[in-house]
Specification:
Elements (H helix, E strand, L loop, with lengths): L4 E5 L20 E2 L2 E2 H11 L4 E6 L4 H6 L4 H10 L2 H9 L7 E5 L6 H6 L2 H4 L4 E4 L3 E4 L4 H12 L2 E7 L9 E9 L2 E9 L10 E9 L3 H5 L12 H8 L5 E5 L3 E4 L3 H13 L2 H15 L3
Parallel strand pairs: 1-4, 1-6, 4-5, 8-12
Antiparallel strand pairs: 2-3, 6-11, 7-13, 8-11, 9-10, 10-12
Helix pairs in contact: 3-4
This protein binds 1-O-phosphono-alpha-D-glucopyranose.
Amino acid sequence: MKIRKAVFPVAGLGTRFIPATKAMAKEMLPVVDKPLIQYAVEEAFAAGIEQIIFVTGRGKKALEDHFDRSYEIEHVLENKGKTDLLKQIRELVPKTGTIIYTRQHEPLGLGHAIWCARDIIGDEPFAVLLADDLIQTDKPVLSEMVKKFDRLRASIAAVMEVEKDQTDKYGILDAQAVEKNIVKINNMVEKPNPDEAPSNLAIIGRYILTPKIFEYLGKKEKGAGGEIQLTDAMKALLKEQPIYGYKFCGQRFDCGDKAGFQMANLAFALERPDMRDKLIKFIKKIQKDF
Ligand code: G1P
């Protein structure tokens, strides 16, 4: 069955970016000139996704406006003859009816956020994208995962090796390699201390899940940090269905972290021909002071 729907949990408060996120959704923080959420939505559409489901919350109006028409801006750009920009802002509005918004009323965890989309997903496999995880690659991760899913017909999560002392930030796997870039997961644990972690192989925010996951999410059992964790539901699902990990190619940036966010900005700006030379010149200049 084709992966048609993607869930974007976007209800988080973004406390790590206060004061920037006091009145603004953290998913609207721009990397260069594009909000984080737009990178993720573009990745989803490029992977053949037809319906976007935002699990949102209070204070996230800017997200809805971002993916809507802005007649005022269009009018100004039209009058000024800025046709390129006009095309850009028109193109980022998805076809009417392809974005659905639902709300997570309380911050009960990632697992709970996804469970909020259960009736919209129904009985079909679906994707989950966490916009905080930005991946610079020429092999877009979700497109690759959709291809793997077509063959493996099982749930699959993007994975990468992390520093051993960082395991308490991730879902960590006990897994074995089964083919190039694919591991089969035996067990998983959410945010273990480094001395208890089964490995340093971590889940990164791209998933394709079978709808069976909703049965386990619906149990609403609390895990790490007192939250309903997706990792715990996947661990329970493992008893019934195989789950694979896809070791993606490319550089991942943790844009939920201030340093990671700055690194993403630099890396993506260096890819822009209009900025590259200026930035390199500046980096060389300040490097002398390090
Ligand atoms: C979430 C997941 C975690 C995963 C991580 C990837 O954690 O719970 O398993 O490794 O995303 O970014 P969060 O970053 O929301 O705390």
